[in-house]
Amino acid sequence: MTFVTRFAPSPTGHLHRGHAFSALTAFRAAQAVDGRFLLRIEDIDATRRRPEYEAAILEDLAWLGLEWEAAVRRQSEHLADYHAAIEALRAKGLVYRCFKTRKEIDIGRAPHEPAVPYVGQPLPVGEEAERLARGEPFAWRLSLAAAREALGGFGGLTFVEEGAGPAGEAGLIQARPETAGDIVLARKDVGVAYHLAVVHDDALQGVTHVIRGHDLFEAAHIQRLLQALLDLPTPVYRHHGLLVGPDGKRYAKRDKAQTLREIRAEGTSAAALRAELGFA
Q1: For 126-151, how does the pLDDT look when each residue is reduced to its tens digit (9 = 90+)?
Q2: One domain for residues 12 and 124
Q3: 245 φψ region: left (φ > 0), alpha (ψ -120 to 50), beta (else)
Q4: Are 191 and 79 within 8 A, CB to CB?
Q5: What is the pLDDT of residue 108?
Q6: Residues spanned by the domain of 109
């Protein structure tokens, strides 16, 4: 079986060292076994995506020396595919309309307290019809209770971790989708949710190995559930550690981490940056 992996950034900002490390990790892994390396643009967040950021991503990755297959999948061009997946889950009674806002769900939680995974249930038919008639917004949520019943429990859900999770988790991992609660699969303001789109696309594109930062390790648990419910293959996961800056904090867009464009503007060469990141 051919090794297939991908790098899938969101065009919501410029790439930084952390992105470069992750992209190079996946690219070199594919090179090492004469496999395939794909680039996917995960631009389903219509409120934050920008075309100039996508153009910058392509420019930065080419500067780094990465090469990818010509067909770049842009998720925003395939929303019908994801809605079809939601309809498939709906037909099986696995999703429900949730009219609660984030504020309503968080009522009673102190600002310093972590969010508790939300678990709900469908509204009575009459009440739901009334709220729909009033045009109230809603999100499609995956029902953990319905999923557990459909699968006869979650005990058979496992995935292989070839890297390591944040606590060193490795090997055959028992999936724990219950830790995520009833996740949102689609919402009007941001469209289809990340978990559904990524599971769909990894299967469609034949991705055999998902290589990404261990900050996304927990996502593998709920994604494994979606794979089972949608009859999709499960890739091998290979999570890696995260780069941190001089302040000990991981590089992040929200913290205004120095971008690859800024690094390039300072006169740093791609070879020098690759060496700095351990890819000489």
Answers
A1: 999 999 999 999 999 999 999 999 99
A2: no
A3: beta
A4: yes
A5: 55
A6: 78-197+222-231
